[in-house]
Amino acid sequence: MATAYFHHPDCEKHDMGADHPESPRRLSAIREHLQQTGLWEQLAVNEAEEASHDELRRAHPDNYINQLEQMTPEQGHIMADPDTAMNPHTFRSAKLAAGSGIEAVNQVLTNQARNAFCAIRPPGHHAERNTTMGFSFFNNIAVAALHALTFHHLERVAILDFDVHQGNGTVDIFHHDPRVLLCSSFQHPFYPFKHSHGMPGHILNVPLDPGTDSATFRKAIKDGWFEELAAFKPQLILVSAGFDAHRLDPMADVNLETGDYAWITEEVTRIAWELCRGRVVSMLEGGYHLQSLTEGVEAHIRGLIAAS
Could you report the per-residue pLDDT of 213-243, keeping only the tens digit for each? Predict the structure, then answer.
């Protein structure tokens, strides 16, 4: 079975302004890079479909979804929060981003694909149940996890988040749901300055000091995640794949290299083969330096292809 790749050109219509780091160019740069490296032809490429209201409401209440739709401007931009803008295309782009994870889960759990990567935006892991935040509107990874748990009746899903910022929204949504093991590495102290202490046992935080290098990162992940992940025995592994912990990324101060994304992908896919028949669905989160982003995604996808 091949690695499935989910995208949609309308995800590039969401634009928060010329100087905003979460730019449509992130997706076009990834696509162009994969085509140039020859990886594009090795992927089973799919266009995402919008998540329905009922699928979104597993993670977000009706009034939140309706409010986002009603806020959508007819032209120009409005600010949903101090970091996060909406244009006329944002609501559809956000539904497509969330919908990509649903279809990726469907394909992986029905053996149409061994694993999947969703190259989508807006990202999602900062979106809390009732709040936009950090460029995020719907929590894409949470929507995917809840689809696996409710529609496919799984009992245990793991979410691994290696974005340099903690996925506060994912913590918010699953804080009281032990069906989900959330493993998160992030620079600390750093944005979003939440959920660092006193977490329940199914939320495993790996805080990283500014300046953390590759060796320190790898040891922290091994020590902080893998034993608990094996004991949890997930039936599916979801990945919030942020590439902004790279040393070139301007948004943070962790010093990872492209090889670290190859390493963590190899580790995740190895564990997935041991625990859940190789089932992995990965969704793009951060990454704002185009070279390190595209090279990181390439390394990540090469690892997924090698495991498929």
Answer: 999 999 999 999 999 999 999 999 999 999 9
Q: Write down the pTM of the prediction.
A: 0.98
Q: What are phi and psi of 300, to 5 degrees?
A: -65, -45
Catalytic pick from 14, 126, 202, 246? 126
- Is 33 a residue of the active site? no
Helix 258-276 with 214-221: angle, nearest 10 deg: 10
Q: Tokens 């290696």, residue?
A: 162
**pLDDT tens digits, 150-204:** 999 999 999 999 999 999 999 999 999 999 999 999 999 999 998 777 899 999 9
CB 205 within 8 A of CB 196: yes
Helix axes 90-109, 62-71, angle to 10 degrees: 140
